[in-house]
Structure formats: C-alpha cells, structure tokens
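Protein modeling request. Please complete all fields; requests missing the sequence field cannot be processed.
Requester role: graduate student
Desired output: 3D structure, token encoding
Chains: 1
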Amino acid sequence: MLASPYISAILAKEFKSDFRNPYVLAGAGLFLLSSLFVCYITVKRISAPALWVALYWIIVLFASFNTVAKSFQQEQRGRLLYWYTLVSPSHFIIAKMLYHGILMLLLSVVAVMIYSLLFEMPVDDVLIFWASVILGSTGIAFTLSLLSSIAAKAGNNLTLLAILGLPVLLPLMIVNTTLMKNAIDGLDWSVQWKYITVLGGLNIVSFALSMVLFPYLWRE
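Delivered output (220 residues):
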C-alpha cells in the first residue's frame, strides 16, 4: 500500500504546494530558529543532560504543532471533496502522515545540529541518540496528523488540537526523553532496548489508529 501511485501523487502535491507557497515551511523554520536563539541568549550554557533533552523536545514539540496544523488548514472543502472522489481515506491519511513525518524529521535534524552548536553536549551513544530523534519526530508527526484532521473537521480549532495533542503525546515524550538522556549518559543497550521497543510500538499504534479512525472523518 505504501508504494501506491495515489500516495505518491498526494506526496508530490504536498511538496509542490509548500515549495510554491513556502510560508508554512518558512514559518516553521523561523519559529524553530527564534526559539533556539531565545534559549541561547537566556540560558547561555546547559550542563545537565536532562535539561538539555527537555528543552530540545519542548522546542521541537511546539514547532510540530505549528507545522502539522497548518497542513490541514490549507485543505479547502472543495479540494477535499475532489480528493474524496479520487483516492481512498487510507491512501490520503498515509500520504499525510508520511509527508508530516519527513517534514518533522528534517526540522528535528536541523534543530539538533543548531542546538548542539549553541549548547554543546557530548553524546556517548550516537546511534541511540539518532534513533530517539527519528522515532520521536515521526511519532509526533503521526499522532498530530490524525488530531489535526479532527481539529480541521471542528472548524480548524487549534485550541482543540492543543487540548487533544498534549495528553496523547505525553507517553511518547516521556519514553523519548528518557531514551535520549540515556543515550547521552551512555547506558548499556540492555537498558535502552525496552525504550526503543516501546517507542517503535507507539509509532506503529499511532499509524494504525490513524488508518482505522480517519475513514470515519473522511465520510463527514
């Protein structure tokens, strides 16, 4: 299903739309850079790994709300009706989740690079660290894709997205921040493996729930 031409067509449309009208991407990048700069001029130096990890994911989390919500806001009712006649709801939500996952992964990688330059923090286990970045950013994107579609059906109510998103994302963020902190501390893989498994499982559950629940929204 992931290799479907319908999914490829929707993905191509999303990328072309954002590059033709790059306000969403520019806004997300500006929010990310301004947040990092404000943190730098305020804090100057971070020595505790727990604080370093917490501040990083707070910045990424709020950047993701700003980025993913705008994607469904741009979908006008007439365009959604057009997609309704062409593709299945599964194809549509999978394409949206993949697009948001790629977008959030790029933003997270850029944030790590800039954040590490501003606040240097030695990482003992680089592989686990990047696994945390990849699984965490894609998990946020998958979850917010479904929640932002619900908010869009409620009249693009961003307050509803925040109310739904923060409690749902809480387990993901707890596991993810623990995994990243342990990677910085260099804990053994036997300790880390359970966090990777839980984080990967949360991503799969978010993806599966979106495919199951989105068709009900699609009919409205």
